[in-house]
Structures are given as structure tokens and as C-alpha cells.
Amino acid sequence: MFNGHLKKQVEEQAAEISLLRQLRDQMNATMLSITLDTEFRMVAVNDKFARTLGYTVDQLQGRAMADIVPAYVKNLPCFHNFRAAVSKLAPVSDDYRFLRTDGSLAWLHIDWYPIQSGQGKLLYMSGYAREVTKELQLAKENEAFINALLRSTAVIQFNLDGTVVTANEQFLQGMGYSLKQIVGKHHSMFCTPEEASSQQYKTFWQTLNRGEFVANRFKRIDSMGRDVWLEATYNPVYDTEGKQCKVVKFASVVSDQVAREEEVREAASIAYEWSRKTDSS
Questions:
Q1: What does the buried/exposed string (b/e) look like for 145-177 if buried means 16 or more CB atoms within 10 Å of the residue's CB?
Q2: Are strands 92-99 and 32-36 parallel, antiparallel or unpaired?
Q3: Are 245 and 237 in contact, with CB atoms under 8 Å apart?
Q4: Which residues are 113's β-sheet partners?
Q5: Contact present, 101 and 73 (Cβ < 8 Å)
Q6: Proportion of the chain above pLDDT 90, given as a percent
Q7: Computed from CA positions of residues 94, 95, 100, 103, in that sequence, does the dihedral angle turn out positive or negative?
Q8: 8 Å CB contact between 1 and 99
Q9: Quick one: CA dihedral 174, 177, 183, 187, positive or negative?
Q10: How far is Cα 175 from Cα 230, in angstroms, rounded to an integer?
Q11: 124, 168, 161: which is closest to 247 by C-alpha?
Q12: Distance of alpha carbon 229 from alpha carbon 87, whole angstroms
């Protein structure tokens, strides 16, 4: 009976080891893998890892990982967080910079796992990675684009019921409000009472709630009750499920331009009337 129990236990352990090996083999086959010893030398890398950086496996094996990362990395939070995790025998993940053989930068998102001995001492760090260079570059470009847009354009966000979510400084300055004064208030606060109660205004928000893009020149009312003309677009915003969740408005204040156009129209009208009188006389 004892032998039978022991045999079953051995079989269960063998089955578990087999499953773990399959998992390891699948991860090594589909991901970039790297193994560091306690001195942070690369004792093992797979072909995917080496090829991503332009190396062969033999060119990397046995080298210090510091050889293939920029020198300034030692001053970055990711480096300190990695070292701290190693000292605590804790897993850690982050986006890490590596140098390709041509000197260009490659970004790898690595999940690091400390492998311990039976006595609880670190044997090696096992890392599984994927390249995220393009994603991070695109994210940086998008961030720069958005920041440029926010610096130069009045932006305000609304819930689908028309209540204000947030607005940038350009919008607040243009309308004479603080953010606290408008968050949670309805868009109609920027309109005349006549417009806000009109069927056209209701149709306007129905159009936005259908996810339609609206662009036009709009007359709005600032905090002092003065007319403010905005050249604006109202744009649908969707969540990760593809469901519309907000409306964002991008606008430029064109009050001065509208005033000049009105002056031109008035001057043209006066000139026309004058010419008529001159012709009739």
C-alpha cells in the first residue's frame, strides 16, 4: 500500500513536470527568452532574442547584459526596480532598452522571474520578452501630437448627456471659466437660453449621440455673457468595446475674424447702397 501511494505520487510529480516543461518549451518557442546568472551574465538566450538584436546566440551567451544596453540605463527607474526585485527574489516586468548591433535602440517588454534553490537562494533570473519598439514609438508620437494639439487648440470633453468632463487651459481662457466652474455642468451653459431650448439644439445632441461628426462655426456665450465665436468640430470617442462613450470638441476662437468679416459686409453694403444712389442720380 505504501509503495502504491509512493508510485502514485511519483507519477503525479512526473505529470506536473511534463506540463511545466511543455509550458517552458512553448514560451521559448513563441517568445524572446533570456536567462541571467547571479552576476547578470547571459547564460542562455534563444534565437528569437538574439535575432531581434541582430546577434547570433553564440555572440551573446556568456556576456554581461550590460554590454548590450545603453550606459545611461543604470540611472533609470527600470534599472533600480530590477535590482530591487532581484534582491527580494521577486518577479518584475517593465519596458527595457537594448542596443542592436547597428547601434539602434530596441525596446523589449520583459517579465523577469527569479528561480531559487531549495535553500531559497537565487540561482538565475529567467526572462520572457516581446519587442515593443514600434508600439512605444507610436505611443510617443501620439503623445507628442496630442500635447501639441492641447497647446494650440481649445479642447473640451462631454459625456453623451452633454455634461462637461474636462477642458484644457486654452478653452477655459477663451470662455473665461475655471475648470471647477464647468465640470459636471451641461453644454447649454455656453449657449443662449433661446438656443438651448430650441429643437435645433436637441437635434444637435441627437446627432452627436449617433456618433456623427459635426463641424461648423458656433456662437457661444462666455462667463461674462459676451458672444464668443468658435470654429469647432465635435468628435465621437469610443471605448475599448467600440461603444461611444464621450464627445470631444476641438475649437479655435475666431471672434476677431467674425468681427472683421462683419465689418467687411457692412462696408460692402454701404458701398453698394452708395453706388445705387449714385447711379439713380
A1: eeeeeeeebbbbbbeeebebbebbebbbebbeb
A2: unpaired
A3: yes
A4: 126
A5: no
A6: 75
A7: negative
A8: no
A9: negative
A10: 10
A11: 161
A12: 61
pLDDT reported for residue 59: 97
Residue 131 to residue 110: CA distance in whole angstroms = 9
Exposed, middle or buried by CB within 10 Å (0-12, 13-18, 19+), for 18?
A: exposed
pLDDT digits (tens, 9 = 90+) for 78-109: 999 999 999 999 999 999 999 999 999 999 99
Alpha carbon 211 to its chain centroid, in Å, reads: 22
Please tell me the number of Cα atoms within 13 Å of 245 on its side-chain side. Answer: 7
Compute CA 84 distance to the chain's CA centroid, rounded to the nearest angstrom. Answer: 27
Q: Name the helix (H) or strand (E) containing 142.
A: helix 133-152
SS3 147: helix
- For 95-128, what is the HEC assignment? EEEEECCCCCEEEEEEEEEEEECCCCCEEEEEEE
The residue written with cell numbers 437635434 in the block is 203
The set of residues, in sequence order, having a beta carbon less than 8 Å from that of 101 and lying 6+ positions away, is 53, 54, 55
For residue 184, the 8-state DSSP code is T
pTM: 0.68
Residue type, 268: A
DSSP 37-104: -TT-BEEEE-HHHHHHTT--HHHHTTSBGGGGS-GGGGGSHHHHHHHHHHHHT--EEEEEEEE-TTS-
**Which position has the grid cell 459625456?**
159
Per-residue confidence at 127, pLDDT binned at 50, 70, 90? very high
Burial code (b: 16+ CB inside 10 Å, e: under 16) for 29-49 equals: eebbbbbbeeeebbebbbebb
